[in-house]
């Protein structure tokens, strides 16, 4: 049974409980804290208060202060102690309050967590899931809006996972926590409370009308390294992830384009089979991410598609990304790769 | 004092002009060395507070120097750990083995058997005596000069040399720079090579141990130069915030490659005094006095075991040799420093103490040294059967790609196939063998 079918069955047979992404993440953490006494949740403001985005609300009260607790404002320290806890045998799930704040912890992630299994020849491992809200579109300015995923995909030994729906967020997060490798789990904060069409000036959509807001009770997993086909189509393949999945979907719907949208979900290891199969069929490939363009993950995707599907391509690979600038506060919607930028790229690909 | 009253707000009014201070060590190559500015405290004169005391009671000890062994080769004062002669002889035996090992491995590097080595000459007590004061299952997060811990814990010398040679017996599969050991069996964490990263990790391990109601504590070692890293600050903060059962050992051996301790702040205060700002217990200890090292480490261990809190210990010592085989200290410091070092040599001091007790003599010492050298020589010969670095390929090709992740993902499988292909082209003209 494919993961896809399993998922659909879970949705159909579920109790029709509808959650937003924050609730789904909270649910996953709650379940894992319950199931595995070695799981601990820590981070700035995650304890009593329940996190600035409420992802850990109620968890301290339920699981106790030594399982869910606040930390000093020190990302280096948070990741560093998580490495030590992993060496002890725990499965820490640290939260970095904003992805933009993760940089002081980079040495501990890149040189320590990511290398520990290799350098100790499996004597020690760092099984941690670093959760962090990322991405813009919330008027967060240049320190609360970045999408630094490519920094992590460039590091051997790290997995990078980005959900785009409540259902996936829960199942992927459970997989990450059970994974024995360190995982960066970026949560697209623009879609915590609802999918996003890309039109910031239109009323926000809540999750409850989206089919993937049906989140079954209890434990389930979505395998890492597997993309999700969001829509099937022949016009082109769109490779995307996070909040942009919804923007692309809405643009395609609006333009009446039958594109095959792949939500990559895991960036490392990437689901190359799904990418190849789709691009070989459609012959066209659009890559969409919110992060800055140069050396962004889109560059890797473009290279993979070009190297592996070149003779199936009917047009050059197109990339739609954020601009190579810091995320500006007042001009954030000019920065954001919204419907106009995506629409232009689609038109160009269809013309070629 | 300089003054800048409000009336003088116009630009350029400040007098005198500001000056940047760039630290400079007292002695450079060729200089005559005079260490009389170093305050050497009276052995036995330092009070020993209760192990569960309020951290601030240790404040005077952060600016003192805890010493036990006097010039009379006798043990003095409340910090005397009162070890029996057998234990002292065991300690001396570890010293002999560490020194013999360092000598032989240094020579091995010069003979081209490996790429790199780091001796711990002059600071043996800070790892040997400290490790002896811990329980064998207490978790240690070492820096790169704590071979003494492995020797104390009975790690097989052949295993150590296999790692140094990156040969086919190296259980780290030739992946790590020589001396970056790892031994879970000996509760010895994998050495990083990036500096001070082990310090918050030790705190995290200790936090986990406390969460689980375990009995084991953690200890970490870091050089005085590396205390400048943010990781060390994070470690101190987390240690104090969660009252983690951890010991933070700062080895102040005066030199970080060519940078003297002034570049980590030693001109202004002691490293032990860092403890005060965090509310950690702090001790400043003569690192060349094996009994003082043992006593301080034991004090901190007991404190941690009693949930009474973490301790930061500065061991004041001297790096008697270069930073590593890649370093030439004659280029930046006076050769006289080693001879003039006011705290002497840790091995000599312990030996002389045992002799003064009537429990040892020079002949037995010579025999101990000879036996240590023989043991290292035999281990070296054994390890060389597994090969030396650069002479042949010691690890199967695929091991390069293993353990990056628990499972080999598709992109690493492809790269492993490429590596195999390259090897076929290089050695067999592209024909599969």
From TrEMBL, chain A:
Cofactor list: thiamine diphosphate
Protein's UniProt keywords contain Oxidoreductase: yes
InterPro entries xrefs: THDP-binding, Transketo_C/PFOR_II, Transketolase-like_Pyr-bd, Transketolase_C
Taxonomic placement: Bacteria, Pseudomonadati, Pseudomonadota, Alphaproteobacteria, Sphingomonadales
The species this protein was found in: Pelagerythrobacter aerophilus
SUPFAM superfamilies listed in its UniProt record: Thiamin diphosphate-binding fold (THDP-binding), TK C-terminal domain-like
Keyword Oxidoreductase assigned: yes
Pfam families referenced in this protein's UniProt entry, alphabetically: Transket_pyr, Transketolase_C
Record-linked CDD domains: TPP_PYR_E1-PDHc-beta_like
Biological processes annotated in GO: branched-chain amino acid catabolic process; response to nutrient
Keyword annotations of the record: Oxidoreductase
EC class: oxidoreductase
Domain of life per record: Bacteria
EC number: 1.2.4.4
An MF annotation (GO) of this entry: branched-chain 2-oxo acid dehydrogenase activity
Residues in Transketolase-like pyrimidine-binding domain copies: 19-194
This protein's name: 3-methyl-2-oxobutanoate dehydrogenase (2-methylpropanoyl-transferring)
From TrEMBL, chain B:
A biological process from GO: branched-chain amino acid catabolic process
Source superkingdom: Bacteria
Principal EC category: oxidoreductase
UniProt domain 2-oxoisovalerate dehydrogenase E1 alpha subunit N-terminal: residue ranges: 16-55
Listed Gene3D superfamilies: 3.40.50.970
Keywords of this entry: Oxidoreductase, Thiamine pyrophosphate
Reaction(s) catalysed by this chain's protein: N(6)-[(R)-lipoyl]-L-lysyl-[protein] + 3-methyl-2-oxobutanoate + H(+) = N(6)-[(R)-S(8)-2-methylpropanoyldihydrolipoyl]-L-lysyl-[protein] + CO2
Cofactor: thiamine diphosphate
Bias-annotated ranges (Basic and acidic residues): 1-12, 21-34
GO molecular function: branched-chain 2-oxo acid dehydrogenase activity
Entry keyword Oxidoreductase: yes
Record bears the keyword Oxidoreductase: yes
Region of interest (Disordered), residue spans: 1-34
Domain Dehydrogenase E1 component span(s) in chain numbering: 96-388
EC number from the UniProt entry: 1.2.4.4
Annotated family: Belongs to the BCKDHA family.
Function summary: The branched-chain alpha-keto dehydrogenase complex catalyzes the overall conversion of alpha-keto acids to acyl-CoA and CO(2). It contains multiple copies of three enzymatic components: branched-chain alpha-keto acid decarboxylase (E1), lipoamide acyltransferase (E2) and lipoamide dehydrogenase (E3).
Protein name: 2-oxoisovalerate dehydrogenase subunit alpha
């Amino acid at each position: 049974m494919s993961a896809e079918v399993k998922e659909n069955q879970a949705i159909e047979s579920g109790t029709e409980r509808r959650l937003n992404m924050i609730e789904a993440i909270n649910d996953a953490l709650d379940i894992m804290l319950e199931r595995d006494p070695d799981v601990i949740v820590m981070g700035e403001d995650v304890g009593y208060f329940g996190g600035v985005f409420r992802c850990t609300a109620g968890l301290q009260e339920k699981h106790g202060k030594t399982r869910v607790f606040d930390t000093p404002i020190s990302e280096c320290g948070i990741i560093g102690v998580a490495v030590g806890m992993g060496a002890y045998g725990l499965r820490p799930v640290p939260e970095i309050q904003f992805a933009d704040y993760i940089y002081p912890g980079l040495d501990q992630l890149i040189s320590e967590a990511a290398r520990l299994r290799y350098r100790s020849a499996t004597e020690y491992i760092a099984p941690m899931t670093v959760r962090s809200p990322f991405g813009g579109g919330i008027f967060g300015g240049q320190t609360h809006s970045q999408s630094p995923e490519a920094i992590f995909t460039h590091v051997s030994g790290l997995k990078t996972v980005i959900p785009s729906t409540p259902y996936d967020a829960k199942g992927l997060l459970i997989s990450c926590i059970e994974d024995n490798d360190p995982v960066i789990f970026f949560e697209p904060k623009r879609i915590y409370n609802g999918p996003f069409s890309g039109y910031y000036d239109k009323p926000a959509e809540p999750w409850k009308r989206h089919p993937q807001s049906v989140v079954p009770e209890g434990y389930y997993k979505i395998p890492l390294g597997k993309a999700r086909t969001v829509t099937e189509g022949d016009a082109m393949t769109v490779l995307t992830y996070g909040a942009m999945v919804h923007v692309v979907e809405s643009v395609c719907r609006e333009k009446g384009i039958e594109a095959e949208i792949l939500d990559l979900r895991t960036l490392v290891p990437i689901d190359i089979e799904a990418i190849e199969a789709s691009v070989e069929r459609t012959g066209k490939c659009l890559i969409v991410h919110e992060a800055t363009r140069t050396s962004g993950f889109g560059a890797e995707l473009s290279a993979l598609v070009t190297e592996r599907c070149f003779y199936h391509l009917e047009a050059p690979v197109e990339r739609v990304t954020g601009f190579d600038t810091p995320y500006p506060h007042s001009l954030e919607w000019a920065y954001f790769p919204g419907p106009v930028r995506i629409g232009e790229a689609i038109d160009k690909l269809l013309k070629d | 004092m300089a003054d800048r009253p409000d009336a003088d707000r116009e630009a350029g009014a400040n007098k005198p002009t500001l000056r940047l201070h760039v630290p400079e060590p007292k002695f450079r190559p060729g200089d005559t060395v005079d260490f009389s500015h170093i305050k050497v405290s009276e052995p036995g004169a330092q009070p020993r507070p209760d192990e569960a005391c309020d951290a601030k009671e240790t404040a005077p000890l952060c600016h003192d120097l805890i010493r036990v062994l006097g010039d009379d080769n006798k043990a003095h004062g409340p910090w005397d750990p009162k070890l029996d002669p057998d234990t002292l002889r065991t300690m001396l035996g570890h010293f002999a083995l560490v020194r013999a090992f360092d000598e032989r491995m240094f020579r091995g590097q010069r003979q081209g058997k490996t790429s790199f080595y780091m001796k711990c000459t002059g600071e043996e007590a800070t790892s040997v005596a400290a490790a002896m004061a811990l329980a064998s299952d207490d978790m240690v997060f070492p820096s790169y000069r704590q071979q003494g811990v492995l020797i104390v814990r009975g790690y097989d010398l052949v295993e150590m040399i296999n790692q140094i040679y990156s040969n086919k017996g190296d259980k780290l599969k030739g992946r790590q720079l020589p001396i970056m050991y790892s031994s879970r069996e000996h509760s010895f964490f994998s050495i990083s090579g990036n500096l001070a990263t082990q310090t918050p990790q030790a705190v995290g391990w200790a936090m986990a141990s406390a969460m689980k109601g375990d009995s084991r504590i953690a200890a970490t070692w870091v050089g005085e130069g590396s205390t400048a890293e943010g990781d060390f600050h994070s470690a101190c903060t987390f240690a104090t915030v969660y009252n983690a059962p951890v010991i933070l050992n700062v080895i102040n051996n005066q030199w970080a490659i060519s940078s003297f301790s002034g570049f980590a702040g030693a001109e202004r205060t002691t490293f032990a005094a860092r403890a005060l700002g965090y509310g950690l217990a702090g001790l400043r200890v003569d690192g060349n006095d094996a009994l003082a090292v043992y006593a301080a480490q034991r004090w901190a261990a007991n404190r941690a075991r009693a949930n009474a809190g973490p301790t930061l210990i500065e061991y004041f010592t001297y790096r008697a040799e270069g930073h590593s085989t890649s370093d030439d200290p004659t280029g930046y410091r006076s050769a006289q420093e080693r001879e003039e070092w006011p705290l002497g040599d840790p091995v000599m001091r312990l030996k002389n103490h045992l002799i003064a007790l009537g429990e040892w003599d020079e002949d037995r010492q010579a025999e101990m040294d000879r036996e240590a050298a023989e043991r290292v020589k035999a281990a070296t010969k054994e390890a060389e059967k597994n090969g030396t670095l650069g002479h042949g390929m010691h690890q199967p090709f695929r091991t390069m790609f293993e353990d990056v992740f628990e499972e080999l993902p598709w992109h690493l499988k492809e790269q492993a196939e490429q590596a195999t292909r390259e090897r076929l082209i290089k050695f067999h003209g592209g024909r599969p063998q």
